[in-house]
Amino acid sequence: xxxxASACVFGEDVAFGGVFRCTVGxxxxxxxxxxxxxxxxxxxxxxxxxxxxxxxxxxxxEIQFADYIxxxxxxxxxxxxxxxxxxxxxxxxxxxxxxxxYGAVGHGGHYHSQSPEAFFxxxxxxxxxxxxxxxxxxxxxxxxxxxxxxxxFFEPKMLYRTSVExxxxxxxxxxxxxxxxxREGSDITLVGWGQQVLVLLEAATYLDKHHGISxxxxxxxxxLPWDAPTVxxxxxKTGRLVVSHEAPITGAFGGEVVAVVMAKCFDRLQSPPSRVxxxxxxxxxxxxxxxxxxxxKVVDAARKSVAY
Length: 308
Description:
The chain is an alpha/beta fold and 308 residues long. The protein contains 12 helices and 12 strands. The protein has helices at 26-30, 42-54, 73-80, 83-86, 117-120, 134-145, 158-162, 196-211, 228-238, 253-265, 288-291, 295-307; strands at residues 7-11, 35-37, 58-62, 96-102, 127-129, 151-156, 180-183, 188-192, 215-219, 222-224, 241-248, 274-278.
């Protein structure tokens, strides 16, 4: 906001800092004309953001919980994603970034814990980004805000309170659409995004220590477009794949990853790719630990894959 005078931040309760305190101090620093609250209307927030971006502003909108992004689907899918295409390049709302906290938080229940990323990965014209750490969140968010396409930026709310990391103070960007090999290995490839990457890293450590299995961990970071070549190269080396995410398993983005790997790595696979994901049910409250794709669920899937 220091370098772009047109940038505005808005959403429900963002003026006082937001429910997760992500916008603390912005109102005092940049003023009410650039940092302001909106009515409780996700459709209105998205529509306003599209209009603001189409007039040349940089619009950073917050949907307070990703669970409540569904009323904005029409605006995001049928307007934001298609704005440039349907006008033959004459108009654009590429200055729009939608921030939305997603995923489990330990006590959120079915209205504050969902992972709706797959709804948006089928929408050409959007980018879908899901960071897994504070430093990555900063680099990817700055890249998203400056991206010439509208971006849905899902923030893992569990990490707001649990992740500790040194974050560069200065301005820096991480390239969108690039996956990161966060742990190298030789026996199996574990793929995830957002909060689940930390689960995969813990599982990889356990597999190495207790079972002698060397797991390579890949953080996709961007789901649309996703970095298929990095995953293909890893699976071509290890011969095995486990994809893991919090969203319910049926129809989730993990199926896309598995389908591409099957098509590109079929003759190099040592075992069928598998998925470790949320269950096909509404997100439960007291049974959240049973629902989530835990470390030991990932360990079990990896061991079965290696023993196949």
